[in-house]
Amino acid sequence: MKIFKKFYFFILLLSCIEITAQNISKNNFTKFPLHLSEFGFFSDLRNQIPVKGVHPYSLVSPLFSDHTDKLRFVYIPEGEKLGYVKNKVFIFPVGSTLIKTFAYLNQNGPLPKQLLETRLLINTDEGWKALSYVWNEDQTDAKRSIAGATILTTFISSDGEIIDIRYRAPNQNQCKECHQANKVMTPIGPKPRNMNKTVEYASGEMNQLLHWAALGWINEKIKTQFISSYADINAELNDRARAYLDINCGHCHIAGGSADTTGLYLNYAENNKEQLGIYKKPVAAGRASGNLQYSIVPGNPDKSIMLYRMKSLDPGIMMPESGRALADEAGIKLITNWINSL
Amino acid sequence: MKFLKLSKQYLVVSLLCSGCLYASVQIIEPTENAYQEIQEALILAEPGDVIRLTSGIFKLEDSLSLDVPNVQIEGEGMDQTILDFSNQQSGAQGLSVTSNNVTLQDFSVQNAKGDAIKVKGVTNIKFLRVKTEWTDGPKPENGAYGLYPVESTNVLIDGCVAIGASDAGIYVGQSTNIIVRNSRAEYNVAGIEIENSYFADVYNNLATNNTGGILVFDLPGLPQQGGHHVRVFNNRSIGNNTDNFAPEGNIVGEVPRGTGIIIQANSDVEIFNNEIGDNDTVNIAVVTYANETDDKTYYPHPKSIQIHGNIFGHTGYNPDTSKGDLAQILYDLSNGNMPDIFWDGLVPLSQIILGQPDEEKIIITNNGDATVLAIKPIGFMLPFLEPATLDITEFDGVVTPLAKVEFNENF
User: Where is the signal peptide (chain A) (predicted)?
Assistant: First the structure.
């Protein structure tokens, strides 16, 4: 694939560096292209039309990110396969890239669509690298950002309301806060259970996992749990709530994750009630406790620290700590109902 | 090695560093674009680099983070280089560090919206002459922790100052090999707190005007628990009489105003040669973790605690019965003659019946004219028996000194 020449070149470059100058830090961000266009992932960058070989995908339950629309694509080097471990993120071959563009498409109102940033997770010889490319005002290209960026903008909510936002593109270290488990960078979204859904392809509707199998990436017989979409109002409340907590909180609130110091674990597999927050006292919350005693008080959402922190917009209180400047009203409603049901 | 020149304001000086490569000193001044410059420098730093922040006030709206090992962040003095987060818009800390072999020195972090400096999962971290402060006095709106290393190994805090934290000024949690010395903690809820940690030396510090001066705690349900081997010596824990301003729900919210030192649910703790006095409620309290927990692996009682050679000043003259029940129980049992040292006497049921093993017994010796009150659990529960003892000689014994905590401070 000709278009990826450049891309392969710096993967190669990285491996050379490792061999010739092992003392140089692995902080090779500046060796990645300065502009998103240089990767050649898109035939039409502005309209996010990928080239052949770059495939769109979507997740059953996405992370809440200030109501941004997320356009996801994956590139797998030709002829390579993904590894599969039950209930874990797929193991991607070196050279694979996950591409996620954050945008306000503004489909419900008079504002033009706005691409904010495109994040890349690139699996290199040295493991996954996270990069953020912030779109220029003309929306012609996106430029690599190291220290993150603040974008003051306006978007149209699903209700047609105009909302002002101080959107923060994360810095490289903030990527690690969520994407690092036991000090190793990893993707979060593409777990088999979170990919198990029907998607509209050019060729028609198809289950996403079967589509990946048809591409030769995975075995079509892999077993995966079914997980509800937290947005699916027909699904069971507990499943929806746990799906929500898993994708929004569980990557940090898990043993080995960046919030493991708290002993509050919100990943899908956690079954210990206290560890899940039920009648669990805060450890290091400070004022973020909101003068409440427990993370979750069954039947009493107003007494539950979890909801207090989900509702807050104060950086010293809010959860998640980064990645949002707005509250997720739908998520708050869901977790309120769930706590009421406990 | 090439070094990326980020802007003209950077003065890039290359130095020869021993062992391998060049290291550079980058000098950043408090300009408009300071956040971007500092954060880029922290991300692009190479091991061995020094990032120097000049004198002045750096007004920062987002949190800073370092994840490159062997980097030093230095200012030009804790009262000269000030990172001011009063207008912070995002991030739960002022500064966060997640890489090994890092030195932070000679600057201060003010008014962070959450914790001031959090260091997580790091081997070898030094805080030298660093100050964290909330400048508007003790308020529940202040961030929880000032200096906050957690899940770390080889932690040195030397010559630091922590003021105004709504939980603990200097807080070391779930860590191993810790030295906190020559530091001052003032107007925090807890001045200095060592929690769920192993091997800590806390000495030559001043804890004053906090709610509680020095706390050695262990909590359930955490990745590291069973805190042990903590030496607290040559400190002054004086006049810690600030009303508890911790938001409710937090464990330190139960600390009564006017507490010198509290030991909760740790083993092998040696408290010696400290000066502890002018504390409204009690100079030293040794207590069991009293909240309910499902954690079967957790041991809630203090054991092998040695308290010797301390000098006690006035205490208990104005006990704070508003927080927790410690002060009220103590006041009732002592009929108002509040002791210097309180032990809640709680041990596992088997030990209430059969007695404690010798090596687990609390030793209180050679503390001048100190007074003690220790609850007798059986007497406390049954009528007609003495609920407590005031006889300090019951706790006399031979001190078995704990080993000094040492690690290579010159990483």
Answer: 1-21
Percent of chain A with pLDDT over 90: 65
pLDDT of residue A29: 52
Å between A22 CA and nearest CA of chain B: 10
The residue count for chain A:
342
**Of A327, A319, A177, A321, residue with least CA distance to A245:** A319
Which residues lie closer than 8 Å to B350 by C-beta, 6 or more apart?
none
Max Cα separation, chain B? 82
Are B234 and B175 within one domain? yes
Tell me, yes or no, whether B188 and B294 share the same domain. yes
Provide the chain A residues 142-161 that lie in CB contact (below 8 A) with chain B.
146-148, 150
Q: Based on the domain organization, do B129 and B259 belong to the same domain?
A: no
The letter for the amino acid at B349 is L
On whether both B118 and B176 belong to a single domain, the answer is: no
User: What count of other Cβ atoms lies within 10 Å of the Cβ of residue B309?
Assistant: 17
pLDDT (0 to 100) of residue A30: 56
- Over the stretch A44-69, which tens digit does the pLDDT of each residue have? 999 999 998 899 999 998 899 999 99
> Chain B within 8 Å of A204 (Cβ-Cβ)?
no
Q: Does B76 touch chain A (CB under 8 A)?
A: no
Whether B245 and B390 share a structural domain = yes
Chain B residues inside the 8 Å CB shell of A290: 247, 249
Chain B interface, best mutation among A17, A20, A24, A25, by max B CB count within 10 A: A25
Is the pLDDT assigned to residue B2 strictly greater than 90?
Answer: no
CA distance B28 to A137: 29
Which segment of A69-78, A168-177, B67-76, B146-155 scores lowest on mean pLDDT?
A168-177
pLDDT at B262 over 50: yes
> Which domain, by its residues, includes B284?
168-403
**pLDDT at residue A10 in the model:** 44
pLDDT digits (tens, 9 = 90+) for A203-233: 889 999 999 999 999 988 887 777 888 999 8
Asked if the C-beta of A20 comes within 8 angstroms of chain B's C-beta atoms, the answer is: no
Mean pLDDT across B238-243: 98
> What is the per-residue pLDDT across B167-185, written as a single tens digit (0 to 9) for each?
999 999 999 999 999 999 9
> Which helix (H) or strand (E) element contains residue A9?
helix A5-20
Spatial strand order of the sheet with A54-57 comes to A54-57, A69-75, A97-104, A114-124, A127-135, A142-145
According to the model, what pLDDT value does residue B22 have?
A: 60
Residues B123 and B182 placed together within one structural domain of the fold: no
The rounded distance, in Å, linking the Cα atoms of A105 and A114 is 6
Q: Is there a domain that residue B1 lies in?
A: no
**Could you say which DSSP state residue A289 is in?**
G
Domains in chain A: boundaries: 2-214, 237-341
* B107, B184: one domain: no
Average pLDDT across chain A, whole number: 87
Based on the structure, what is the number of domains in chain B?
Answer: 2
A264, B221 contact by CB (below 8 A):
no
Tens digits of per-residue pLDDT, B112-152?
A: 999 999 999 999 999 999 999 999 999 999 999 999 999 99
Euclidean distance between CA atoms B359 and B362, whole angstroms? 9
